[in-house]
Amino acid sequence: MTPAHLAFLLLAVPLASAGFTACFLRRHGGAAAACSVGVANLILIGALWLGLSGVRFEIAKEWLNLGGLVVSFGFKFDDLAALMLVIVAVVGLCVHVFSLGYMAEDAAKARYFAGLSLFMFSMIGIVLADNLFMMFIFWELVGFCSWLLINHWYERPAASAAAKKAFITNRVGDFGFLLGILMCYRTRGTVNLTDLAVQTSSGFAIYSRALPLLLFCGAIGKSAQLPLQVWLPDAMEGPTPVSALIHAATMVAAGIYMLCRIQMLMVPQVLEVIAWVGTATALYSALCAITQRDIKKVLAYSTLSQLGYMVAAFGLGSVEHRTESGEVVLVAAGVGAAMFHLTTHAFFKALLFLGSGSVIHACHDEQDIFRMGGLGRRMKLTFATFTIAVAAIIGLPFFAGFFSKEAILALAFTQNRSIFAVLAFTAALTAFYMLRLWKLTFLGVARSPQAEHAHEGGFAIEAPLAVLAVLAVFGGMTSLYPRAIAGVLGWVVEPEGAARAAVLVTSLAVLVVGAALALIVYRSPAIRQAAAGPLCDPLQSRFPTLFGTLVALRDSFDTVYGYYIEKIQQRFAMLLNFFDLLGIGGLARALAGVVGLAGIEARAVQVGRLNVYIYWFLAGVAVLWAFAAGVF
Amino acid sequence: MISAGLNAYIGLSAVLFAIGFLGVLLRRNALVIFMGLELMLVAATLALAAFSRFNGTMDGHVFVFFILTVAAAEVAVGLAIVVAVFRRRGTIQVDQLDSLKN
Which of A400, A445, A471, A610 could form a disulfide bond with A392, CB atoms 3.0-4.6 angstroms apart? Predict the structure, then answer.
């Protein structure tokens, strides 16, 4: 079996599993779960075999030939794809196993696991795609899977609305992406990633800038960057393992991955836009996360914030690097740092979500952190792993997030000091809201009966937590990675001398400040005191203005979009509808009226009496005779 | 023996046809309508036989045989239908057989 065959199998097997489940196992939840988890195991084995064997290949077959447009179906398996494939497979398997425990009692288990398998198929398709058209197809497929899985509990109005919101918001970004692909085909004559890389840019400057910007629109939608970030927090209505896999670790990271794939199309002006969009998202989402009470919403905003980090890192672009032999080479440090953070983030954020899933499971669907508390004593393993994940995300030294975040900050320090400042401030906010979450959930006393009776959820829930915890500890040490998949991480440029010290001191300082503030504001007496009053949140009772501002900031986008849709788009749609009724609809209705009238006339002939029919027969004979005799 | 001319045969044939046709048009009883139809067939047969006789050819006689054969088959089927309708509906008055209308 050649590597290309194996890659094809990686696509075919999860699709077959989803199809088989949809056709034959609808009523057999247990069998569907076993099938899906088995497939996830196979994917991991295949991905590791493919990734660790160190093979690199490209293969393409012509798929559609429509006039001048040739769409091929092919795989491009390079360093970038190898790393991403392994991440998807590892996190995918953890989430599948976790779902066995989390969704054990669910009535629609078969649909859920079929959805997961379909998602694995689509995501692997994005990872392996060798051209933009193929990537776009799988891009839409993951969007569909996201819709399907957010909508899993479709009888809840909130879940149904959130799924629609996610889908429609993504459409906005995808429209730009599709325009970008078409423009790429038009101006470059190819959409194959390798061909694009060897081609030197030609044509007008306007195209070379508009093209990457349009493609970036796709990433804005999928990776939920400003201003299309509104769908991700709502998407938390889906089952928690789905949030971990799709809305934290893999699908939302597909935007970053896509950017890294089209890195050769980038020009400096566009990179600057991208960097600022990412930075703004990171800051905005971190501010939003502070006021959230729902454990999953806090994590959702933190995901947005970390995605902002990755986009910003990508936007910081390439740096000139002096090798040991003294040559100056251009290194894609932005891609390296973004993918590094994507990797560590996939591990620790999946762990955070699965940990929150374990907590929610234990508290019987309670998601409000002010109705939790004291869970650390009752759920030892969840507590330990969640603590590791928190340490990783806030960048505690020697945990995964520390290294990747430092790589981004170091890059920002050399490339753009203002972005560095904003990102450092965001890191302080991250430490603040994560410790707030951690403290309220796991320490102190239980603030609700559910929290008092919480207990661990069994092996299927605990095992993935343990595996991901190990990865969240060691995921930042690039030297531990197998060489075959760490090629991209080699592009991370280590800071030197003073820069190194400055970055290190800054990241430690913001960590300490953020963490200390959180521990002061949310110290146990303050929580108890606030819990007695109408406002549960000590921050809210102490600093109502600040809290109100942050809430307003969070709601601002939804308010503006709601206003736009209701007052402008809806009215415009009504206007168009009016013209539609008048013009096109009018014509259609007039034609229908004429036909209907003829029908009424014709019906009058059919009286149902034999004699009348004979008269008609006679009349027909007379007409025929007259015709034959040449009267007409 | 007084030999009748062609016109006498054609005239008789026309009268028979008119009686049959008016019967089909005006009567309500399916059996009588059926008899009218038969009468029209006989009228046509008579005209054909007369033409054949006066032209001295055999064509008309051949037609007569065909028509008699087909008419016999048609009567068998038609009467069977009338009987079946009567059994099912209890009437063969065509103005009462109007279930297509309602």
Answer: A400
